[in-house]
């Protein structure tokens, strides 16, 4: 299992497939399981890369505080270790913030796809974010998935629960990641000129709709779309959104690679 190192912190990542690289950046607390649907759909014509944020999975969990700039530097360490020249970034929540910061500071990114992301942590609902932690107990997926989805997929929820117990950040590591998200202020959005697609849940308790729409309006090449569901709407509607993502990547792969 490959690892990269940033400032003494070991960062675990995995890759599969061939072709242009798509790197996935996770949300507060969640392990790499979050990207299983996207990973499977894209692996083959694209090289897919998933990594564990510090505090998550097999990466080190140093004491906090964490911040988005450090997480973006972690991502750069992973991409450099793997020898990635150009990369499409897909991030959710905190991962979307990391992608925005990364695109402003480094030069490998070619497109951004952002799920349930805001340009400022002050726009997030801190209590709703905390409720997503595995430590919150049986209702910790209520803010991520709709009642209908959870009711219709009990077996899947059992598997997700197993994946979370194995890989999710908990305790102080979750708190450090959450603090990074809540303290975030995006770089000037007009300077983030990459093609960007933003998807946001219409019932997301963490990221209000107006915060997501404000992010879209501030990005020079941004487009946005509302999705039925909550903070994990991109998992709940993974089939449709991976089709959209594939089409988006194919469009810019033709021009950039």
Describe the structure.
The longest helix has 19 residues, at 238-256. The protein has an eight-stranded mixed beta sheet, with helices on both faces. It has 257 residues and is an alpha/beta fold. The chain is globular, with a radius of gyration of 16 Å. Helix 1 packs across helix 10 (238-256) and helix 2 crosses helix 3. It contains ten helices and eight strands. The mean pLDDT is 96. The chain has a single domain, classed as Rossmann fold (3-Layer(aba) Sandwich), CATH 3.40.50.1820.
Summed up:
The chain is built from 10 helices and 8 strands.
What sort of overall outline do the alpha carbons produce when their principal axes are compared?
globular
Please write the string of helix (H) and strand (E) elements. EEEHEHEHEHHHHEHEHH
Q: Kindly give the count of domains.
A: 1
CATH topology: Rossmann fold
Q: What is the radius of gyration computed over CA atoms, rounded to a whole number of angstroms?
A: 16 Å
């Amino acid at each position: 299992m490959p690892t990269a190192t940033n400032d003494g912190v070991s960062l675990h990542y995995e890759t599969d497939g061939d072709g242009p690289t798509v790197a996935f950046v996770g949300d507060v607390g969640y392990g790499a399981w979050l990207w299983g649907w996207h990973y499977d759909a894209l692996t083959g014509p694209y090289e897919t890369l998933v990594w564990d944020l510090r505090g998550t999975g097999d990466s080190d969990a140093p004491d906090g505080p964490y911040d988005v700039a450090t997480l973006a530097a972690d991502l750069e360490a992973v991409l450099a270790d793997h020898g990635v020249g150009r990369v499409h970034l897909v991030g959710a929540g905190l991962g979307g913030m990391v992608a925005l910061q990364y695109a402003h500071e480094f030069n490998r990114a070619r497109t951004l796809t952002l799920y349930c992301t805001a340009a400022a942590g002050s726009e997030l609902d801190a209590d709703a974010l905390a409720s997503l932690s595995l430590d919150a107990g049986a209702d910790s997926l209520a803010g991520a998935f709709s009642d209908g989805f959870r009711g219709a997929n009990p077996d899947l929820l059992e598997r997700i629960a197993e994946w979370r117990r194995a890989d999710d950040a908990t305790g102080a590591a979750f708190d450090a990641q959450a603090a990074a998200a809540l303290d975030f202020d995006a770089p000037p959005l007009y300077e983030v000129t990459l093609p960007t697609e933003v998807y946001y849940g219409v019932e997301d308790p963490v990221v209000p709709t107006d915060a997501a729409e404000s992010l879209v309006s501030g990005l020079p090449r941004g487009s946005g779309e509302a999705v039925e569901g909550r903070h994990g709407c991109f998992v709940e509607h993974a089939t449709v959104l991976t089709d959209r993502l594939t089409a988006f990547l194919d469009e810019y792969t033709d021009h950039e690679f």
